[in-house]
Amino acid sequence: MTVDRAADLGALIAARVRDVPDYPQPGVVFKDITPLLADAGAFGQVVGAVVAQYGAGAVDKVAGIEARGFILGAPVADRAGAGFVPVRKAGKLPSQVIAASYDLEYGSATIEVHADAFTPGERVLIVDDVLATGGTARAAVELVRRAGATVVGVSVLLELAFLHGRERLDALGGVETRALLTVG
Ligand SMILES: O=P(O)(O)OC[C@H]1O[C@H](OP(=O)(O)OP(=O)(O)O)[C@H](O)[C@@H]1O
Ligand SMILES: Nc1ncnc2[nH]cnc12
């Protein structure tokens, strides 16, 4: 019997991510990952699946995007044998930063990384929970590249295809976008 592990994991994610209508504003269906995080088995499988996309040792740093990208990105970095770099919302990092601004499904924001977070040529995997319009991930790619490092990919738990984030990342060129589950 053939077991489709990707389909199994997709079904598990679909079962553990809760839709919250009209949050944080009317018309938005918010994808709440907290039930998945609270399930030890599901959380572990998700982290393992992202690590397996590239294999341990294939990336030097994992860049996790505040806030939910921290929750996934830090254990991915640990299991992949990589360092972790926090990509933070503006004004939170203490030392010299580089910044990028962007729009997302429900507003606009600025993210920052420390200017010395990456060594030129380092292989960086960007991790977040949701890819929606792609504004956040695109800004993160821009920051990593401006810091002189190489983006090997963007990995997310959940892609909202109807918001076309993947196309925005594809337009940058050289970015491999992977989602454990794509909806819409
Ligand atoms: O593809 P986009 O349209 O850019 O949207 C995706 C981003 O939106 C959410 O973050 P949010 O800014 O809500 O921050 P949070 O993780 O702190 O809740 C999510 O965690 C992604 O980072
Ligand atoms: N609908 C959504 N749910 C969760 N996070 C998001 N980020 C952008 N859009 C989102």
Automatic annotation (TrEMBL):
The compartments listed are:
Cytoplasm
Instruction: State the SUPFAM superfamilies in the record.
Output: PRTase-like (SSF53271)
Which is an annotated GO molecular function term of this record? Answer: adenine phosphoribosyltransferase activity
Q: Which UniProt keywords apply?
A: Cytoplasm, Glycosyltransferase, Purine salvage, Transferase
- Where does this protein chiefly localize? cytoplasm
Q: Cell membrane: is it a keyword of this entry?
A: no
InterPro entries (UniProt xref): Ade_phspho_trans, PRTase-like, PRTase_dom, UPRTase/APRTase
Is the keyword Transferase assigned to this protein? yes
Mind naming one GO cellular-component term on file for this protein? cytoplasm
> Which BP terms from GO are recorded?
adenine salvage; AMP salvage; purine ribonucleoside salvage
Its pathway is: Purine metabolism; AMP biosynthesis via salvage pathway; AMP from adenine: step 1/1
What does the record give as the reaction this protein catalyses?
Answer: AMP + diphosphate = 5-phospho-alpha-D-ribose 1-diphosphate + adenine
The entry assigns this protein to a family as follows: Belongs to the purine/pyrimidine phosphoribosyltransferase family.
Q: Which NCBIfam families match?
A: apt, PRK02304.1-3, PRK02304.1-5
Q: What is this protein called?
A: Adenine phosphoribosyltransferase
The organism of origin for this protein: Allonocardiopsis opalescens
Gene name of the encoded protein: apt
